[in-house]
């Protein structure tokens, strides 16, 4: 049964795609023939999607009949239960406002940058943890009831009390921009009335990113080769779009997998 980090990645990769989520949900009502599934999601790439779901251990395929594995059933059940729980919590949240910036000081780590304190109201106490999946580079700490969000060099910490500290900021205008960005992401999430599914904690390493790149060292991404590009991706100093080769059909699977992996960096 999937459980370790690699298996979690396989499952995340499998369900990151809308067609595959559709297949899984379709199978929730019982076994289906590949023909029936093809009518729902299209036949052109059906084999590809079924293979990915099989590799993730979510389905079983025997003689043209597809069904959820035991793991697949439990996975679907957990997802449904979690989403029902979170819907209740998130629907009670109120949109936030940013109160004025309270303090601007030099950053301890780099005195050429600023450390800015502000406040969000109302406090985010009960829902702070649920906000974590809204930000790709974020980490919630139960112990401190704080959410750390990274964007480029900027590091923001939001506390359950509503206190916000932004570090490594260039000037007050940049701080205001970042506060507005956070506010609109949080309020858009709250407006949906449903918390996003919690992100699985997965560690991604450099070699894993590297091995999914095309390995041609063509340099079209502006780097010396794929390894250098992988380093830039790990440092979040480059985006996958720069590797134009990944858009070619033969790298479709690599591209999808890399999209999932870079979200965990
Ligand atoms: S463009 Fe893609 S394949 Fe070419 S060197 Fe860069 S990462 Fe490698």
UniProtKB/TrEMBL annotation:
Coiled coil regions, renumbered to chain: 165-192
Pfam families xrefs: FeS, HTH_5
> What PANTHER family does the database record attribute to this sequence?
ACETYL-COA DECARBONYLASE_SYNTHASE COMPLEX SUBUNIT GAMMA, PTHR36214
- Residue ranges of domain 4Fe-4S in the record: 199-260
Signal peptide positions on this chain = none
| Record keywords | 4Fe-4S, Coiled coil, Iron, Iron-sulfur, Metal-binding
Task: Give any GO molecular function from the UniProt entry.
Answer: DNA-binding transcription factor activity
| Protein name per its UniProtKB record | 4Fe-4S domain-containing protein
């Amino acid at each position: 049964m999937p459980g370790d980090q690699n298996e979690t990645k396989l499952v995340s990769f499998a369900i990151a795609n809308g067609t595959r989520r559709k297949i899984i949900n379709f199978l929730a009502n019982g076994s289906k023939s590949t023909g029936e599934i093809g009518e729902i999601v299209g036949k052109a790439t059906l084999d590809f999607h079924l293979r990915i779901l099989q590799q993730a251990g979510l389905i079983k395929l025997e003689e043209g009949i597809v069904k959820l594995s035991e793991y697949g059933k439990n996975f679907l059940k957990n997802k449904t239960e979690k989403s029902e729980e979170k819907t209740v919590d998130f629907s009670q949240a109120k949109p936030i406002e940013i109160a004025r910036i309270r303090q601007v000081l030099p950053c301890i780590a780099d005195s050429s940058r600023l450390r800015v304190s502000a406040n969000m109201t109302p406090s985010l106490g009960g829902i702070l943890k649920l906000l974590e999946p809204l930000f790709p580079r974020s980490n919630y700490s139960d112990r401190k009831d704080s959410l750390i969000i990274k964007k480029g060099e900027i590091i923001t910490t939001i506390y359950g009390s509503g206190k916000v500290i932004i570090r490594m900021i260039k000037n007050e205008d940049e701080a205001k921009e970042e506060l507005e960005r956070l506010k609109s992401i949080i309020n858009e999430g709250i407006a949906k009335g449903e918390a996003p599914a919690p992100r699985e904690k997965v560690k991604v390493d450099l070699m894993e990113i590297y091995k999914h790149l095309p390995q041609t060292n063509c340099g079209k991404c502006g780097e010396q080769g794929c390894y250098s590009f992988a380093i830039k991706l790990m440092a979040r100093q480059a985006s996958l779009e720069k590797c134009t080769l990944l858009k070619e059909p033969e790298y479709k699977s690599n591209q999808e997998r890399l999209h999932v992996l870079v979200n965990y960096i």
